Amino acid sequence: MTTDRLNSIRKAFSDRFSGEPSFVVRAPGRVNIIGEHTDYNEGFVLPCALSFDVLLAVRPRADDTVALLSTNFSGETSFPVDDVEKSGPKWAHYIKGVAVAMREAGYSLRGMDAVVEGDVPLGSGLSSSAALEVAACAAFKRVAGLDIPGPEMAQICKRAENDFVGVASGIMDQFISAVGEAGHALFLDCRDLSYEQIPFDVESAGLRLVIADTAKRRSLTEGVYNQRVAECAEAVKLLSQFIPGIHSLRDVSFDQFQLHQPHLPEIIRKRARHVISENARVLGAVDALRAGSFEGLGALLNASHESLRNDYACTGHHLDAMVEESRQIPGVLGSRMTGAGFGGCTVSLVKESSLDQFLTTVPEKYTERTGLVPTLYVVTPQGGAGLV
Ligand code: GLA
Questions:
Q1: 173 catalytically annotated
Q2: What is the pTM of this model?
Q3: Quick count: other Cβ atoms within 10 Å of Cβ 306?
């Protein structure tokens, strides 16, 4: 986060509300290294927080009004913190949803004036919405003098996304945004929310982590995401006839899946196979990182993409083209789509010696194939939400 952005949000605050904000909070977007579509199946994930983030410049008010201005979108809105309606601009729904979820969790909130600004690319699978929710939660928390630990903030923000915004997402994005640590990937068990910060220093191994935004946009609320969630629930329902007592695909071993998969309709079988095999790949990735084997990690990234393409059917022409072109570059250890899919970004592990070639050639080839102009970012893991 640059001083320019900080100055600019402070100025926007003074222009709109007069005087200075009392504080500025930030919450980051994320890139998921591996463990895709596993979180809502109580599985494992391995994301990193990014330097892209959402900032909220805030000043508490004496009454219970929340007055908001976004510098990314036109329009302002205000609402009573204790009586929230799902109306007004869409971007404010994420903040309203957090207010509702915090009150439902038993917290008393207070009013505030706030300016919102973010640089997480929108609709690109880097979790701009989770960053906004977690930043809002951090702001409400500070204004009301509450002590809410990161994992609980993540649960509140997930509830906002599920119940208020209406996307049946898992907890990965909110969790990494709340508890990320610089230089680390977060190994999270989405069943019991136990987690471990795994050192993730690709530079010292002569590597770079590159995110490629395909410029193909998607919207989580379009329904396909919720459809995948429903397909996984259906898999659990069908498999529980043969494996009593299971609650999620996390409870199904690969051997059990192999034994009973002939009883599943083809689509459901494929979705389940992705989730069960992806959980194993996350465990493999953590082992590879602990052993310092980036080659091992790269192979798992590749396998994850194949599974997301063939079994989960959430890649599509643009993500596949980007991954294929990325893998053409010598010195690419692995490349896969990241996030929900259906558009958005890929993540690649690239040898430093191949970085220039990667940054020049991959966009050219991708544009030849798709007509879209992508944006590439070389990233390092950053810290989670907090005061700026
Ligand atoms: C989106 C959701 C997450 C997760 C990913 C896919 O980012 O918000 O909860 O399900 O998709 O892994």
A1: yes
A2: 0.96
A3: 14
